[in-house]
Structure formats: structure tokens, C-alpha cells
Structures
1.
Amino acid sequence: MKKVLIITYYWPPAGGPGVQRWLKFVKYLPEFQIHPVVYIPENPTYPILDETFIKEVPTKDITMISQPIREPYRLASFFSNKKTRSISKGMISQKKQSLPEKFLLWVRGNIFIPDARVLWVKPSVHFLKDYIEKEGIDTIITTGPPHSLHLIGLRLKSLMELRWIADFRDPWTNIGYHDKLRLGGRAAARHERLEKEVLTKADKVITTSNTTAREFNEIAPADITVITNGFEPLNNLKKPALKFQIGHIGSLLTGRDPQLLWNALSLLISEDPEFANAFNLVLAGAVSDDVRSSIGKAGLEGYTTYMGYVSHEKALELQQTSRVLLLLEIDSPQTKGIIPGKVFEYMSARRPVLAIGPDGWEVKQLIQESGIGACFTYTDEASILKFIKTNFERYKSGLNAEISGDIEGYTRRSLTSKLAELIKGSWE
């Protein structure tokens, strides 16, 4: 097998969607005669932990290496542990911010460029240069965020003869929270310069959406391949809940606050006693104070179950037991190319997806082509109300909750096949 070095920050026991993409790629790469060597931090500060992912790490055909990391989040938590964790998750309040929060945002955006893991770059380059030479590795992959990991690839590329693939799970300067980091002019320019340099110097660039690929090509000419996130097929689906359960699995950031949806649900509750008796909104994951406030103002607190962060296994179960699955994105031009990883796991649950996001959101085409639900903008309250009513009628009639769709191309094995072709192409 050919060895490939994969440089990633998120790895079990980290929780959340960021860890799953490369955990699954690593699982299937050996089937395509590629031996993954995974480089991770020895002592990371993960905002979310999920111990259940540990058992998914392959026990053969993989090499794990690590080095210590120094992270300023440990020091920042001395001032405000809650705010530090929120910023680390990208949960930045749009309302009045405290002085500690303003200070932490300024430091995050202006001192630690491109992010708070930048202190890992120099020691990693020193360690990996020797390791790559010793092991005869000629291909490396960096995955971000954190985008500081791409700087490891950038520096190794400048020092050695090797092929470098940069995988962007999210955009860099065009991500939704970037303009909330209180950037000074010099810091903003440096972010842009580093982003352009990575796009220019990497031999191959991977994005998870076509929109991000187009945005990157406007910044710099790059050889870009789109490989979305995916899902593992489920063999036996669990029965849906007895209640008419509408579920959202994942973080609800401040901007992901569809007040028109809360209003539509409130209207149905007031107009239809059957709906009021049957309805249950289940939110699994971190929910910002702003979103909680909106839900309360709509009178939905008594109908809402806040699960907090749950394990991946529990998340899969909640997806299957829901009658409708919510997919919410911030209403901003900057999020048009964001395809949340949860949409693919929603596919595996085979429950209808109610997606609400910006006009021109790439998810709309994906949902239409796969046939897994419907996608609306933040002005489509009447259409959203109709979608919920239609699925509630199906629930009352006892119809099968499962839907069918063209989703085979989004399985983890299928996507790894595409990645393997890209990697092997770099050897030619």
C-alpha cells in the first residue's frame, strides 16, 4: 500500500461533524490500496467530546502519530470559560457583547491568524519533515478548519518535494463568523494573503460544495475537486416516535434562528388541537441563548425538548425517530455554499427534510435531486406551513414515515473512491 500523511486537528474523542469526514475516509482508504498515516495533536482542547467515536477508529491498516500542541483557549478560559467555548464552536452572539467577549474575539481574530491552533504549525513542520523523509511519503493532505493546518502543508511544500492536497470542510475568509472577529485592517489582509497562498501553492484543493469551489477560484486559480460529506447506510431503521416529532440534530447558532418557522408552528398549535397534542420539537446539540429566546417568544417552550449534545449513536436514533428533520442555515450570501454534514446523515434516516436557508443555497439543488425533502428561504412561511401540514396529515393517516431517494452516491465508501482517485492521480 502507498502511504499518505493526513494532517487533522479533529479526531476521536472529538465530537461533532468535523471529526467524521476524515474518520470515515481513513476507514475506507485501505480498500483502495492507500495506507493512511494520521497526524493529530497529542493534547487538544476539543469544544465537544464524543467517546463513542473512539471505537470507530480502525485497528489495522492505519498509522497514528501525534505531537503536543499549545492552545491559547486554555488561558482564555481563565477569563470566561463559557464564552471561550462558545467562540470555539463559532457561536458568536449578535446582540450586546460583554467586554471579555469583545476582547476574546479581538484576540482570536487579530493575534492568532488564521486561528487559535497556529502555535502548532512550527513544531509540526519540524517533526513531520523528518518523519516524511524517514518514511518515504510523497503525498500529504491537510484538512481545515482549523485552517492553520494548511500552513503546515504550505511550509512542508516549500521545504520538500511532495504532493499536497488541501481539504476545506468550510470556507476561510468567507465563512459566516469571519466578519464578527473584530478584525483590524492588517489582520484582515493577512487572512486573505494566507488563504490565497494556500490555494495557489496546493497541488490539489478539495471543497465540500460547488459554491465554495467557485468562490475560491475567484480568489486564485486552483485545481479544485468537490467531494461532499456523506453517510453510512443504516440497515434497520428504528420506528418513528409516537408523537409528531420534528427534530434538529446539531448546533443552532445565533444566526440559525428561523422565526418564521417558530411562528408557523405556533399558529398550527393555536389552530389545530390535534397538532398541539401530538407535536414535539426535539433539539439535540448546543442551542444559543438567542434561539432559545425566539422559541420562548413564539410560545413553544412547552413543546420543546432540549437534549443538549448527544453521542453520535443517539443522534442517529433521534434522526430515525423524527417525522420531519430540520436543516437550518444562516440567512446570508456567505452561507450559500455551506452544505452541513447532517444533511447526508439525514439521508440515511430516510425521513423528510425541511430545510431553511439563504436564497441560492446549494443545499436546495441537492435536496431536489436526491428527493429527500424540500428547501425554503426565510420568506417562505406559507410554503413551510404547507409542508408541515402535509407531513402531519401523513402522520395522522398512519402512512409510512420513510421516503425514498437517489442517495447512493453520497455513501462514505463511494466518496472515498473519489478521494482515492484524486490521491492516486497525484502520483502520476
Note: Residues 2-71+113-230+411-425 form a domain with the Rossmann fold fold (CATH 3.40.50.2000).
2.
Amino acid sequence: MKAKIIFTFIFSACFFMLAFAQDAKSADGSHFLVDFGKFSPPIREMAQSFEGRPAEQFMASDITGKEHFLGDYKGKKVILWFWSKDEILSNGHISALNATQKHNEDLVILSFARGSKSDVKTFAEANNVEFVVIPNADVFGQMAYAADLGYPRYFFIDEFGIIKQVWPAESFQEGVNPYNAIADMLVKI
């Protein structure tokens, strides 16, 4: 009887982990994992509480001074990416998002970088960031987009302005290129 309970527990745990994992291939053909199953219950619940809801509207100026209103992008898929130039994981996402932007004409990437406008602008220029960068991410993160989800974090929004998927910082392992996971998500929304 005890062995049956242990087997059931192990089987259930494996099934649960597989149900919340997304597998994708990187450019070199190797696999990486965006592991949704490893979230702590509060993080999982917070991320899921956004999904299916309309995205919170905002207007913000990017590092060039151009204003962006989220409502102006209805009809396009939007990625909101919250990041910090001081986080190793964030730095690894820049090339993936640059490539994603190049291969998706109807996609808007609005990134919210943690830090002052001058610091973020210097960093973005030095690292060839090719998508919109809005400084002072903490303001938007704390108000509407859950700073508790960590850096980096993604919000995938469909062309109707509905948040379809949220990836907290825990989604990505260090040194992982998220390009294919993002591309796969864009096909689904």
C-alpha cells in the first residue's frame, strides 16, 4: 500500500511538472526549458491572475523622448518586457528580442528598464538595443505589472489588448536564449 502511494505521488509530480513546462529549440538546435512548474504558488497565482484580462493602459516616454500609449497598438501583438541592466538574465534577452523584432513586423516590443533615463539610454546604445526602451521600470512594475514577478518578466498581449501569457523571472534559467520560446508564444496568441 505504501509503495502504491509513493508511486502515485511520483507519477503525479512528474505529470504536474510536464504540464507546466514549455520546450523549445535554440538557434543551434539544442533544447532549453521555460519551466512554469517551478514557480512558488504565490508567483504562479499572481502571473495567472493577469492572464485573460485586458492589459492596464499607460502612456510613457521612451529614452528618445517619444511617447507610447499602449492603446495605440491595438491590432498588433505586444510584448511588455520588464528588465534591469544589472541582471545577467536580462542582458541575455536583448539579442533574442532584437531578432524577434526583426522577424515580426506586426509586433511591438515595449521594454521597461530599471534605472534612470540617462543610465538606461547609455546602456541601450552600448548594447545595440533595437526596440523601444522606457526607463524607470519600477514605476510601471509596481503600479500595474507586478514588480514581485522579478526581472526580467514578460507580458504577451494579443491584438485585442488581452494579456495571454505572463512569464515571471523564474521562467528562464541563466544562460538560456529565449528567442524560440518567444517565437512559439507569438504563434499561440
Note: Strands lie at 21-25, 31-35, 59-61, 67-69, 77-84, 107-114, 132-134, 153-157, 163-167.
